[in-house]
Structure formats: C-alpha cells, structure tokens
Amino acid sequence: MDRNLALNLARVTEAAALGAAKYMGRGDKVIADQAAVDGMRKMFDTINIDGVVVIGEGEMDEAPMLYIGEKIGRGGETDLAVDIAVDPLDGTTLIAKGLPNAIAVVAIAPRGNLLNAPDMYMDKIAVGPKAKGVVDLNAPIQENLKNVAKALNKNITDLTVTMLDRERHEGMIAACREVGVRIKLFQDGDVAAAIATCFDHTGVDIMIGIGGAPEGVIAAAALKCLGGEFQGRLVAYRSEEKARCIQMGVDINKVYGLDDLVKGNEAFFAATGISDGDLLKGVTYYGNNMARTHSVVMRAETGTIRFIEAIHKLDLKPEYAK
Ligand code: VTB
Ligand code: MG
Ligand code: MG
C-alpha cells in the first residue's frame, strides 16, 4: 500500500477531532459524535482509495454515514482496495463531559484483511512489545500479570494494569488486588488504553477487560504497528449475539490474535486526540480562528510511528473540516 496514505489518514482523524472538539463539555454526546462522523466521512471522500467500511458506526439502517458495508473513496480502477475500520469518536461520554482520552481513530488494511467483528463485547488483553508472547487470554489473570511483570523485570506491585471501570470487571479487579498490582480504571476509550501499553511514559503495562469488539479490531491494528500484542475473544450476553456471530462467520470461542484480527503486515492506523490523553494532546484553540491538533500515524510494514502536530487555519478550511 502507498505509504503516503498515512498522511491522508491523519487528515481523516484530524477532521473528526476538529468536528467533535467544538462540543467538549456540552453534555451532548450525540451531537459531538455526529460532528466527528461528518468530518471523517467527508475527508475520506478526498482520498483515492476503493474502500469499504468493515467496522463502522453500525448497520446501514441505523447509521446514515460510515455504516458497515459503505463504500468509501473514489473507487477508481487503479485505486487501492481496502478495508476500513473507524471510530470517529471513541469516548463520546468523555467529550460530552470534557474528560480526558477521547480520540478519533481509523485503521485500514488491504481488502479482506480486517476481521468483520459484530457490534458486541470482546474480552481483551493488550501489552507492549517487551511483554509480547507472555500473555494468554485463556490463562488465569494472575498468571498473565505475573508473566508480564517478569518480562518487564518489575516487581508485581510495580506493575500497572488498566481496565474499563465497569461492574462486569469486579472479579478481575479482585484478582488484580489479590496479587498487589496497581490498577488504573478508566471511564471509556479502550482503544487509547490498549495503545498506552506500548509507550513507557504512560506508565501503563497491561490492559485487560471487556469492551467493544469493533474497538478491539481497531486497537489490534495499532498494536500490530507498535509491535505489541493483543488478543480478543467475543463475549455474547444474549442469544441473538450468538446467532449474529454464526451469521458473520466469527467464532465465539476463539481467542483472536493479532494476525486473526488484522491479517498481513500492511495495516495503517491513525489517531487524533480530541481531549487531552496519555498519548495525545487534545484539540486546542488559539486566537484568530486557529486550532492545533496532535495525531499519531503508524504503518505495520515498517513499524514507523509518526507524531504529527498540526496548526489549522480554520478560516481557510472547507466547512466540514473545521
Ligand atoms: C469500550 C470503550 C468505548 O464502550 O469499548 C466500551 O472503548 C464498551 O463498554 O469507548 P460499555 O458498553 O460498558 O461502555 C465505550 O466506552 C463507548 O463506546
Ligand atoms: Mg463511535
Ligand atoms: Mg467507541
């Protein structure tokens, strides 16, 4: 895939972030999400790809834009056939309340290479490169924690595990406390949390817990680029969800590894901060109608990670991109 696609993907997440950031703290997650979707969708139209959304805002009848199966890009004969996974605003509640860690994300890979994950829950485990190969979603949590501590040459009490603050995690939290690890709970946004495990300065060593399956595929694309490890298993709480898995051809019992979630080594990932986060600063506004964004773009093939700080002159931008 053309390596310059990376910069275009940053444009796409920047547009989503600039759209949503205006609504920080307004208490309205729907309007913020809509603005992110609009910005992202329109910026996609400027890119020469033959894309299809495999992870999106929902089924065609429930999402007018970026729905699953939607064709994106110019779609010319010479254009690259790709799968697209998006979450224009991961952390809608975060932005509505002005809380940290809301991001806009996109992942792409050659056609057929991203898992078509149903919109349901996924049990996940993510670690950075130094702990690659020592975790197993089928193993007891405490065993994984001990193995990660060992791989990082840390005392178990110095290990930091992060997970969504949800009642369904009570058992996991108790297991973590029993072995004495430090726990960092977060409200929303487990894509950003999974990525944080790959950067030392975040202080986060491992992410565990049950979050959205679509977010799992997107996080896997990032962790593939970063050399980390990600495993996920779908969780069906309702019988319809089991039926949906069968219909979509995904295995409810299988632990999906990085290569199952994102096939091959040609994936790209991009994210832009909307509110301030561990990895990316959020959108900031200056005088004279200017804004600044912080993004990261990654390419699996070469493992290049680029941080892009951009200054946007909002007066000069098309309406959708500001
Ligand atoms: C996570 C997280 C999202 O949903 O996937 C989570 O990354 C799923 O769990 O940001 P809940 O249904 O308990 O929220 C979000 O928090 C929101 O999409
Ligand atoms: Mg979303
Ligand atoms: Mg989300």
Which architecture of the largest domain would the CATH scheme give at its second level? 2-Layer Sandwich
The sequence of SSEs as H and E is HHEEEHEEHEHEHEHEHHEEEE
Query: Which CATH C-level class of the largest domain is it?
Result: Alpha Beta
Q: β content, as a range?
A: 25-35%
Structural class: alpha+beta
Number of extended strands? 13
Mean pLDDT: 95
Shape: globular
CATH topology of the largest domain: Fructose-1,6-Bisphosphatase, Chain A, domain 1
**What composes the largest sheet?**
8 strands, mixed
Percent range of helical residues = 25-40%
Bound molecules: 7-O-phosphono-alpha-L-galacto-hept-2-ulopyranose, magnesium ion
Number of helices: 9
Radius of gyration: 19 Å
Can you describe this structure?
The protein has 322 residues and is an alpha+beta fold. The chain folds into 2 domains: 5-114 and 267-321, Fructose-1,6-Bisphosphatase, Chain A, domain 1 (2-Layer Sandwich), CATH 3.30.540; 121-261, D-Maltodextrin-Binding Protein, domain 2 (3-Layer(aba) Sandwich), CATH 3.40.190. The protein has 9 helices and 13 strands. The strands form 2 sheets. Strands 1, 2, 3, 4, 10, 11, 12 and 13 form an 8-stranded mixed β-sheet that branches. It has a 5-stranded mixed β-sheet with strand order 7-6-8-5-9, sandwiched between helices. A hairpin with a 3-residue loop joins strand 11 and strand 12 (290-299). It is globular. Bound molecules: 7-O-phosphono-alpha-L-galacto-hept-2-ulopyranose and magnesium ion (2 copies).
